[in-house]
């Protein structure tokens, strides 16, 4: 069978799939109660930025200690023995001091409170940078409100539980999903959906100013060389999710966020999906390690009322085995700009395979209301592994 055979075969299969399960369509016929489709709303914790970095995570980690430990043991099971163990036990703990502030001290604080060896907490923080696949979308409604949604999919290839038809790590991550309210002077600076134990940001909102998510970009030109270089001692790039954290914490406008995300040198390629607080302010920044190689913005004049990113460059076809983009766009198109809202965006993000066995949470944000809400997800069978 040739590649193009495979390709048209897979498109046919997906074509059938889409018609069967586009939730937005089903909704019109059956009007599902909104509440039955998610497992649970996510709890809130405050992170006080006025505390020294080593103390900021104490309350959260004390609460989630057992789950963080379980996950860390599991992650260990997937790390092959020998060289890597040496890396985790000897090299990574030394590297924590080379991390920029406040990240190194925050990670040390998490290790101290959880009782997990420092190297493992560092590894845990690196893991999310490397194995995350997701879907992000920013849309503008008819009134000029910007809405930003994302599914966070994690745990690919890290152990499949045959009995439960689920990814082992993805399941263990779900209890770690938390919403965080970062405060300074007792006032919210930004909010985020995160995994307890992780100090970088993958999903966040600066209320009334901007919303931001990061998706992984698999790329042959650059790849993980930067991460290897960093481990080996050449450390002139920034961790991707440390940059998003820093932008959420310290950027004060959409424009500032955009230029920092586009111009800061990174350790690996990434997609940043950014929404602002005014009409037209929504974009996908496609990054190589060094710079922004493409910017796709909402453009109402061209009829582009939303931008949507999975894990493939928007100007190229997605990998045929992993096309979450086409079904997600089809559902956005069916929703129409007139009907886009947090609720309909949740429906789009509940459409398989946009929702799949890797999906740990869905987050919805509305910048004008300063609102972030997230849901832990289960994908009922039949459901694609990714
Ligand atoms: C698999 O399912 C069983 C029961 O349904 C549960 O006890 C077990 O914890 C699950 N395993 C995982 C890894 O989620
Ligand atoms: C912080 O703000 C909350 C309400 O927003 C208030 O109840 C509390 O007293 C404030 N704490 C301090 C120390 O100002
Ligand atoms: C944000 O800025 C403050 C003040 O310059 C700095 O201390 C802090 O480390 C910055 N935060 C991040 C995450 O970079
Ligand atoms: C939108 O963001 C800008 C900063 O970029 C801020 O000055 C302005 O007040 C914000 N608008 C609203 C309505 O919050
Ligand atoms: C969705 O609509 C856009 C704009 O009209 C179009 O370019 C795109 O091909 C459509 N995608 C799907 C999957 O229907
Ligand atoms: C938009 O929503 C309204 C009310 O829920 C519905 O009647 C209408 O058919 C929807 N329009 C489209 C284009 O889906």
Automatic annotation (TrEMBL):
EC number: 3.5.1.23
Source organism superkingdom: Eukaryota
Source taxonomy: Eukaryota, Metazoa, Chordata, Craniata, Vertebrata
Entry GO terms, CC: extracellular region; lysosome; membrane
Acid ceramidase N-terminal domain ranges (all copies): 41-98
BP term (GO), one: sphingolipid metabolic process
Catalytic activity: an N-acylsphing-4-enine + H2O = sphing-4-enine + a fatty acid
Domain Choloylglycine hydrolase/NAAA C-terminal: 134-371
PANTHER family hit by this protein: ACID AMIDASE (PTHR28583), ACID CERAMIDASE (PTHR28583:SF1)
Protein family: Belongs to the acid ceramidase family.
Places the protein is found: Lysosome; Secreted
Ranges annotated as spanning the membrane: 12-30
Pathway this chain belongs to: Lipid metabolism; sphingolipid metabolism; Sphingolipid metabolism
Entry keyword set: Disulfide bond, Glycoprotein, Hydrolase, Lipid metabolism, Lysosome, Membrane, Secreted, Signal, Sphingolipid metabolism, Transmembrane, Transmembrane helix
Gene Ontology MF terms in the entry: fatty acid amide hydrolase activity; N-acylsphingosine amidohydrolase activity
Organism: Sander lucioperca (Pike-perch)
Name this protein carries in UniProt: Acid ceramidase
Active-site residues from the entry: 134
Signal peptide positions on this chain: none
